[in-house]
Amino acid sequence: MKTPLVLLGLAAAGSLAFLATPASAQVPQLVNYQGRVAVGTTNFNGSGSFKFALVDAAGTTTYWSNDGTSTAGSQPTAAVALPVTNGLYSVLLGDNALTNMTMIPPSVFNNADVRLRVWFNDGTTGSQLLTPDQRIAAVGYAMIANGVPTGAITSAMIASGAVTSAALAANAVQSANIASGAVGSTQLASGAVGSAQLGTGAAAANLNASGQTGVASGGLVLSATENQALVNAGYIRIGTTTTADAWQQRTNGPTPGARFLHTAVWTGSEMIVWGGTSGSNLNDGGRYNPAGNSWTAVTTTGAPAARYSHTAVWTGSEMIVWGGQGASYLNDGGRYNPAANSWTPVTTTGAPLPRSDHKAVWTGSEMIVWGGQGFSYLNSGGRYNPAGNTWTAVTPTGAPAARAFHTAVWTGSEMIVWGGNNGGVPFNDGGRYNPSGNSWTAVTTTGAPAVRSSHTAVWTGSEMIVWGGVGFAFLNDGGRYNPAGNTWTAITTTGAPAGRYNAAGVWTGSEMIVWGGTNNSSDFNDGGRYNPAGNSWTLVTTTGAPAARRLETAVWTGSEMIVWGGNNGGGTVLNDGGRYNPAGNTWTALPTTAAPAGRTDHTAVWTGSEMIVWGGSGASNFNDGGRYNPAGNSWTAVTTTGAPAARYSHTAVWTGSEMIVWGGTNNVGEFNDGGRYNPAGNAWTAMTTTGAPAGRQQHTAVWPGSEMNVWSGYRGGALNDGGRYNPAGNSWTAIAVTGAPSARYEHTAVWTGSEMIVWGGYGFSYLNDGGRYNPAGNTWTAVTPTGAPAARFEHTAVWTGNEMIVWGGLNGSKLNDGGRYNPASNIWTAVTPTGAPTARNHHTAVWTGSEMIVWGGLNGSYSNDTSSYTPGKVFFLYQRP
């Protein structure tokens, strides 16, 4: 079960906020606050939604809230968006430059006890109150200070010459304001204080301060670096602490993977999709919000076992999942609470026989399940009461014939069952079940849609809408049944989704949303919204994330990851893509207008303002490409004049002014030539082959700053040689093989600033070793295998500035683990598997400066989900005496 959000270590940040004296016009009315939030034991990372209120000790009186709407300690209406890094955040309370933040009136601190109350929303769990409320101490009360408490300022706090006579108004300091001995002669410039301002003994020894400034005595401060300023201020360094590394599923969010035989319910604001199958059985899902046209993931923690052909109903606060088929027919289930993003088991005591392909409805107090198939087709069922977690049998007397793959809806007083199949010709009849009388009434077949099974059905409040399914073909038509008149009306097919069966459907109050399903040729992750008032259809978004794929390219712009091209596994190469912004957790589609033709195994580099795509394979091998400018959201063609021959599985690096492409294959042989492309002139310059390494593909290349280092790859077998190309001299220098790692391809290489680190890949077997190449000395140093991740290839690697992070890949089975390698210590640290994406290869990964973003790849099916990994970070701890 996902644990509640908790607040850890919230403390005043430590500086004076504002003054309610005549100086308040010059001092901003702000309180600087810092805090930490975690989900369970995992520090939160990303953009969080916060709400703040200043309340009394009992929490029943609100003095101020961020949007001014809180009363009696209640939650404000609007939230303030703040970035959170490793659980840490800071905010200037009262800063009206922030959206939904109002100024704090000084009168708040006329109250003797003022406490900060905080609510937090991580985008999944919903807004939750963080406890306990935090009492505001000296910083807040400085806002109404009319004078300085006796002894609060000592000579140690005032630099020599800090206060001169010019800074003091006449009679600004009277003897009553100065304790005996508070100011000595060494603190006073000639004439700074006259006799009228001094009382007897005023120039005696200095008094001690109260010990309370921004951080209380004994308080701790975390610094990302060794901080001499804190030492100079009297703080004592007491050690270091390392934050835990963490994964976060990103985007609001990825569409659930394509599937069928799943379920969907409507909550009043969201459609929840869960379970199903698509090559393997699933126990995950997503919540679709049509208002925002966005998705949020459903947790798998505590979820029922993976299954398909189950049922699900919405109770008003929970989704109840029951039955279905996994390793066998099932009669268990679970209750999912989206507010807490958590699961509770459903009892099996007294439950109906195990079954799948049955149907269920919610009556307002009970879930009724009926029909389906187990070891035979069934016309029995049961009523489940979640309040008591108990079951009651449904009579079979007068029920429709035993069947599965039918639909059922609840009208407010009856359950209507329709269609389905019992192994022969599908049905277009049904029955209405009344639980109060435990009795059945037949549904007319006059005007009913054609026979079908595995269709969808929803209740509108007055009609049952039936759509899709399979009869003698895959169907995208249907009908509306009115039980009051026992009559049918046809549904238009204009604009409807493609014919399919096993799609999920919900009623929103004005529309029927259908999503997913299959037609045996492909599984769908699209759908449509049907409006019965207009008898019309509207398409459902697939979120903004590019379609699932592998062998795409990805570049990091400094603020966004751009992915493009690749293969979707259906034999289709793609020429679309998307820009992912981790700060906003959003995708923006790339235009296909003027984009290069669809391709895979191409290269892409980032120039600082453009992504340049070149080469690759699709309908043919390519020697063309395009330059994508995100500022203009437009493409410009890369000239083919003077370009290298068409190829794929080559490499490309950016020098600061040119893109250098080299190597690769065209299915006939491997190349050892290449070219330098200058986007400023849209022109190519040939590279010499004199002294170049032998032709190859699936090699690596890095740009250290003046040369391109090429190493290893495939040419009839794995290689362990390479070369350094100098564009200034158009010349090659061999890379030493003494001490080099063994031959390999499909490995990774990163540049550290002084070394190229090569790791993993495939030679005569999968590898988990590597080497560090120093071009200055033309020497190799081995990378320790101790503690290294398991051997693999087709993984990714990024350089963080002090570590190489490798993740995912393949070694006979797909992997979702990895490791962080520190070359300074030659030590590996495992990447946490908690919250990691599903195992995959052929994915992409980029480093943003603070996190690694993983996208796409192949994980049994093609993936278009997004996750970010934040490595643990060392902080220096300082304590105030």
Q: Keywords, please?
A:
881 residues, mainly beta, five-stranded antiparallel beta sheet, four-stranded antiparallel beta sheet, 2 helices, 64 strands, 36% strand, globular
As a percent range, the share of strand residues is 35-45%
Class computed from helices, strands and strand pairing: mainly beta
Task: Give Rg in angstroms.
Answer: 34 Å
Q: Identify low-pLDDT runs.
A: 1-27, 139-148, 178-212
Give average pLDDT, whole number: 84
Shape: globular
Helical coverage, percent range = under 10%
| SS summary, helix count | 2
Q: Which sheet architecture does the biggest sheet show?
A: 5 strands, antiparallel
User: End-to-end span in angstroms?
Assistant: 42 Å
By DSSP, the count of extended strands is 64
Question: Would you write up a description of this structure?
Answer:
A hairpin with a 4-residue loop joins strand 29 and strand 30 (464-467). It is globular and about 90 Å long. With 881 residues, the chain is mainly beta. The strands form 16 sheets. Strands 4, 5, 6, 8 and 9 form a five-stranded antiparallel β-sheet that branches.
What secondary-structure arrangement, pairings included, does this model have?
Layout: E1 5-12, E2 31-39, E3 42-43, E4 46-55, E5 62-65, E6 80-84, E7 88-93, E8 115-121, E9 128-135, H1 138-141, E10 220-223, H2 228-232, E11 236-242, E12 246-250, E13 263-266, E14 271-274, E15 285-289, E16 294-298, E17 311-314, E18 319-322, E19 333-337, E20 342-346, E21 359-362, E22 367-370, E23 381-385, E24 390-394, E25 407-410, E26 415-420, E27 427-434, E28 439-443, E29 456-459, E30 464-467, E31 478-482, E32 487-491, E33 504-507, E34 512-515, E35 527-531, E36 536-539, E37 553-556, E38 561-564, E39 577-581, E40 586-589, E41 603-606, E42 611-614, E43 625-629, E44 634-638, E45 651-654, E46 659-662, E47 674-678, E48 683-686, E49 700-702, E50 708-714, E51 718-726, E52 731-734, E53 748-751, E54 756-759, E55 770-774, E56 779-783, E57 796-799, E58 804-807, E59 818-822, E60 827-830, E61 844-847, E62 852-855, E63 866-870, E64 874-879
Antiparallel strand pairs: 1-2, 2-3, 2-7, 4-5, 4-6, 4-8, 8-9, 10-64, 11-64, 12-63, 13-14, 14-15, 15-16, 17-18, 18-19, 19-20, 21-22, 22-23, 23-24, 25-26, 26-27, 27-28, 29-30, 30-31, 31-32, 33-34, 34-35, 35-36, 37-38, 38-39, 39-40, 41-42, 42-43, 43-44, 45-46, 46-47, 47-48, 49-50, 50-51, 51-52, ...
